[in-house]
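2024-03-11 09:14:02 INFO worker-7 job=invfold-0412 stage=load source=structure_tokens
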């Protein structure tokens, strides 16, 4: 099942191309009210980057689904967002830095995914606790309690940066 966003309304598209509403019944009225509640609907595939265009959202609940891939950087445009719950999916990659710019963000739950890299500790992220990031085995940083590895070997640096590292080394 995929989610398509058009004019602020989410439409579920099944594998056979049929469109319809899911169990969450996310209507235009709920979008205008600022609530994107699609939790526990067994939705799979990537989180649509177009959700970042729904700038009136105050709550985005996509937890308990089967979302995969990275968290879209476009979610950082949701300046009114107070609640972001993406927990219990299969999201991968790094936490997008634009999310730290959402000053209204009060609740963040990215737990139980497959996220990796350093957890930002600036901006709105400075107030979140380890529970927000729990069970992402490849996350590191002060808030996780897992120190990030120290890179002291040029071969541990990604190949795309080898010439840069060697030039400075």
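2024-03-11 09:14:09 INFO worker-7 stage=emit residues=169
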């Amino acid at each position: 099942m995929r989610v398509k966003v058009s004019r602020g309304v989410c439409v579920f598209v099944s594998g056979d191309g049929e469109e319809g509403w899911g169990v969450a019944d996310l209507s235009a009225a709920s979008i205008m009210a600022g609530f994107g509640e699609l939790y526990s609907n067994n939705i799979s595939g990537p989180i649509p980057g177009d959700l970042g265009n729904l700038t009136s959202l105050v709550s985005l609940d996509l937890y308990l689904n089967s979302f995969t891939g990275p968290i879209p950087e476009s979610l950082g445009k949701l300046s009114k967002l107070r609640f972001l719950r993406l927990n219990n999916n299969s999201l991968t990659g790094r936490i997008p830095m634009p999310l730290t710019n959402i000053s209204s963000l009060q609740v963040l739950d990215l737990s139980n995914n497959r996220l990796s890299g350093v957890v930002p500790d600036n901006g709105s992220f400075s107030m979140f606790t380890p529970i927000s990031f729990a069970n992402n085995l490849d996350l590191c940083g002060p808030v996780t309690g897992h120190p990030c590895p120290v890179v002291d070997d040029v071969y541990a640096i990604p190949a795309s940066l080898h010439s840069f590292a060697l030039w400075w080394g």
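2024-03-11 09:14:09 INFO worker-7 stage=report msg="The chain has a mean pLDDT of 80."
2024-03-11 09:14:10 INFO worker-7 job finished
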